[in-house]
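User: I'm preparing a small set of examples for a lab meeting where we compare how different chains pack in three dimensions. I only have the primary sequence for this one, and I'd like the structure in C-alpha cell form so I can line it up with the others. Please keep the answer compact; I'll paste it straight into my notes.
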Amino acid sequence: MSDKNGPWGGGGGGGDDGNRNPWAVPPGGRPRPGGPKPTALDEFLRRARGPQGPGGGGGGFGGLPGGANARNLWLAVAALVVVLWLGLTSIHVIAPQQRGVVTVLGRYSETLGPGVNTTLPAPFAAVRRVDVENVRTIGFPSNGTSENLVLTGDQNIVDLSYTVSWNVTNPQDYVFEIKDPEETVRAVAEASMRAVMATVTLDQAIAGGKSAIAARAQDMMQNLLNQYHAGIAVQGVDIGRVDPPAKVRDAFKEVSAAQQEAQSQMNKARGYAQQVVAQAEGAARQFDLAYEQYRLAPDVTRRRMYYETLEQVLRSADKTVVGTPQGVQPYLPLPVTPRTPPAEETTVTSSARAGGGQ
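Assistant: Understood. Below is the C-alpha cell output for the 358-residue chain.
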C-alpha cells in the first residue's frame, strides 16, 4: 500500500496524473466523468457562494438578488407582514348575537357591539366574543338517567330531576367576575333547589306544588347570581320527575293508595254528617214555627195538634162511626168485624203461618 506504484499512486501528490487518486477532484476543479457526484451540502454551499470567478460577479445569499433590489424586496415583505398583522389583530367583526369584551394589556377597556370594530393590535389588545342571545340549559342529574335524591321538609327522600335555562346579560361581569360560569350556575341551581325542597312536604312536591317550587328556586338562584355579579339571567326552572326512590317505590304506592282510601271514607263521613245535621236543623225550624203559632193562639194550636195526633193514631185502626139524635141510646148488635191488616202485616202473618205448618 505504501508503494509509489500502488493502485492509488504515491502519497506525495506528485505531478504525474497516472499516480493520482482516480476519485479525487482534478486541479481544474471539475470532477472526472467517472467520479462521485457532489453531495447536497456541497450543492448548498456552492449556491450560497454564488457565481464566482472571472465574470461571475457577486450575488445575494441563496441566489437572491443583491444590492438595491434585495433591499426593496425585503422592505416589501416587511410591509406585507405589517399590513397582515394590523388587519388580523386590529379589525374585529362582531356578530349580531355577540358582544366583544376588549382588554388592553390585560385590563378591561370597552365592550364592542355588533358590526366591524377596530382596536389596538395584538399583543396590546385582545377581544373575547361572548354570545348574549344563546339560552344555555343545564340538567339535573347531568346524565339524565341516574337518581338525584333530595330531602324534603317532612324528612322524606324524593328522586328529583329538573333543568335550568340561562343566558348572559352583562358580558363584562360574565368574563371577569366568575371563573367558570357553567359550574357556578350548576352549583347555585343545586343549592337553591335543595333549600326550597327542604321547606315543602312530600305531598306538596309530588302533587301540585311543582310550579310553586320552580318559581321559588328561580328567584333564589337569581338573587345569588346577582350577589356574585355574574352577569347571568335565569330564564326558567322546569321540574320533570318527582318520584320516591326506586327501592321504596312499591311501598310508597301502597301508602298512597291507603291514604286515598282514608280520604274517601272521610269524605263519605262528612257527607253523612252534613245530611243528619241538615235534617235536625229542619226539624228545629219546624218546631220554632209551631211554637210561634202556639204562643199567639194557644187554644187553637193545642186543639189542632190534638186532632192531628188523633188522626195519625186512628189512621190505621178499624172504626165504626154512629150518629144518633140527642137523648137516644143506640144499640147495635154488630158482629165483630175482623181488622184488615195492612199489606206488609198480611205478608208477615202468612209467612209465619206457613212456617208453623211445617
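A couple of notes for your slides: Residues 36 and 82 are 47 Å apart (CA to CA). The two ends are 158 Å apart (CA to CA).

User: Perfect, thanks.
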